[in-house]
Amino acid sequence: MRTCCRWTRPWLCWISLAVALLAGCRHGPPADGGIPAELATRLAAEPAACQAYRNHYVRAFHRHVAALSRHDEAAETGARQELERLRRELADQGLDADQCSRPRCIIEPLQGGKLDSWCGFRLPDRDGPNLYRWVAWPPPGGAARTEESP
After folding, report:
1. Residues 108/115, Cβ–Cβ less than 8 Å
2. Cβ-based neighbour number of residue 64 at 10 Å
3. Which stretch is the leader sequence (predicted)?
């Protein structure tokens, strides 16, 4: 039985190793900790107002969930009004909220009746083992959450 790394053909082993490493790198996260190129391209094609709307929307969503978790009705109302204000500002610029890509935001129940939330984009995982892959939003190094829920 012959193996790849026989001393008579060591270059075959190096080529196989290089191909395997390059294939593995292709499926990994972006090297800079940013967002995948396909998502970055899609978001860059949208009007500039969408970027601001997206980031403010996520912060307002986190504030709303934090208020729900604390049972703070005043803060909950304020966060809901903030979301409505963001939509109005977008409409004033001639855009509808549906014209802007927004991450999916999820409310996660925790022990003790507390709530947490997280947001991200669901992208098809064309080359990987899963149907979808999730990209956290804001991306690493992006705007931090302004309030923690739990």
Report:
1. yes
2. 25
3. 1-23
